[in-house]
Amino acid sequence: MAAPKSKKTKVNGMDMWDQWSTPPKEVLKPISGGPLGAAGLSQIDPMWRYQVMTERFGPIGTGWKYEIEDVWQTQTDRGKGVINVRILLSYKDGANWSEPIPGVGASPLRDDEAVKGAVTDALSVAMKMLGIGASVYLGHWDGSKYNLPMEKRDVLQQVEGMRDRLIALGHIKNEVDFNDRVMTKFGQNLGRMGLDSLLSVKAVLNQMIKEANAKAN
Q: How many CB atoms lie within 10 A of CB 72?
């Protein structure tokens, strides 16, 4: 499981993103079950992310760290229990600690591993803001090829921004709720959608934002 090698120097914007955006294909694992699995979506082995952070910044605790800020339980509209976790991720930027990077993760409430799964998810959300595995999240990399045209990428980024805005507004609870309420209607992952399907999702989210703003006012 090879991670990019880099000296522990002061962080430099897109250098980090470009270096970490594409994971090696051996750390990609197919998602089993559900609409995301049916769409052929891959997930990144979390140990690769931790290896990248350790090689770049040093051991956890001295080069990078995280704290669990909050843990809470919600239900989807279909009555399924969900454990949610908010973490704050920090890394050593030269001699100083970075500002905390927030990450909110969620995991279905199936067993006593739910909190662990939600923490792992929250860390992946925070780390992808540093560019770690970004190509997979954008749908550019499936382990064998880049596959997202520029026009589709632009619409996808708009859709992801709208989803994140709805979560911030509290209209959608988290990404699990987003998948349950929105993506199950389309039956596939965002990165795998054609342009027409993405535009349909965008229209749905645009209407949801209007409803959320109306409630806020």
A: 11
Domains in the chain and their CATH numbers? 1-145 (3.30.390.80), 148-217 (no CATH)
* Separation between Cα atoms, residue 124 and residue 107, nearest integer Å: 13
Length of the chain: 217
Give the model confidence (pLDDT) of 64-102 as tens digits.
999 999 999 988 777 788 999 999 999 998 889 999 999
Q: What is the dihedral of CA 76, 129, 212, 183, to 10 degrees?
A: -50
Q: Which residues of 32-55 are buried (b: 16+ CB within 10 A; e: fewer)?
A: eeebbeebebbbbbbebbbbbbeb
- 112-121, 147-156, 179-188: least confidently modelled range: 147-156
d(CA 153, CA 191): 9
Rounded distance, CA 145 to CA 123, Å? Answer: 26
pTM higher than 0.90:
no
